[in-house]
Amino acid sequence: MTDTGAGPYLELLKKVLTNRIQMETPSAWPAGSGGAAQEEARPGAFTAHTMVSPESLDNVQYCVERALADGVPGDLIETGVWRGGVCVLMRAVLKAHAVTDRRVWVADSFEGVPEAGDGSHPLDQEMALHNLNTVLSVSADAVRAVFESYDLLDEQVEFLEGWFDETLPAAPIESLAVLRLDGDLYVSTRDSLSALYPKLSPGGFVIIDDYNMAPCRAAVHEYRDAHGIKEEIKAADSVGVWWRKES
Is the keyword Repeat in the record (predicted)? Predict the structure, then answer.
């Protein structure tokens, strides 16, 4: 894209979102919680506005800016937002490039992840991530407050509150240019892809944050196989992946 002076603003924003300005704070996960998520946690993530890596934020910025530069139609969405940091970055990219005709959709239960009971996918039951809902649950009002702290809460930000199987199929989204999934579980990934991938415009980007987790990865490959999706899967960072929709 044409240089608009957006670069320094977005670089500083990403450092603030990931709490790389003040590094003395602890990691995101309680002691003894275990699992891949704890192993990937960065110093400072607990008080940051996102748990994702700097490389993952770079990937989000790249996908959004490339979609804008190439004129890919549609809005931007993240399913599973925690404190909202990635969505804040999406909105900041639109603002930095003076884009006023696209929205950022902030989709989350705002209650953590669904409980993996007897009828849930076996991989979700095995992970039992709902046991960490004290960390994963962030209210919609708290996420709005994060947007407000960056002066980025406005009419281009839309909240979808509730479980994905209830909110995403009926969401008033006509088309998407960037679809980012961060729901961790098989069911969350499946429901997000089923409802939203058909709305992703040709040339649009899909980002899967939790591809390193077996439940998420299983849902991704099940969906790709069922719909004949052959686009190359590329690494976003050590845990997430992305691909660009060809048609």
Answer: no
Dihedral of the alpha carbons of 155, 156, 162, 168, in degrees to the nearest 10: 130
Could you give the C-alpha distances from 240 to 9, 56, 132, 146, in angstroms and in order? 25, 7, 20, 24
C-alpha to C-alpha distances, 36 to 52, 85, 102, nearest whole angstrom: 13, 21, 35
H-helix segments, the chain:
6-17, 35-40, 54-69, 85-96, 122-127, 133-136, 140-149, 164-167, 186-196, 214-226
Query: Domains of the chain, with CATH numbers?
Result: 50-244 (3.40.50.150)
Query: What's the pLDDT tens digit per position in 147-199?
Result: 999 999 999 999 999 999 999 999 999 999 999 999 889 999 999 999 999 99
Three-state SS at 203: strand
Whether residue 58 contacts residue 86, with contact meaning beta carbons closer than 8 Å, is answered with no
Spatial contact of 61 and 10, defined as CB atoms under 8 Å apart: yes
- What pLDDT is recorded for position 246? 95
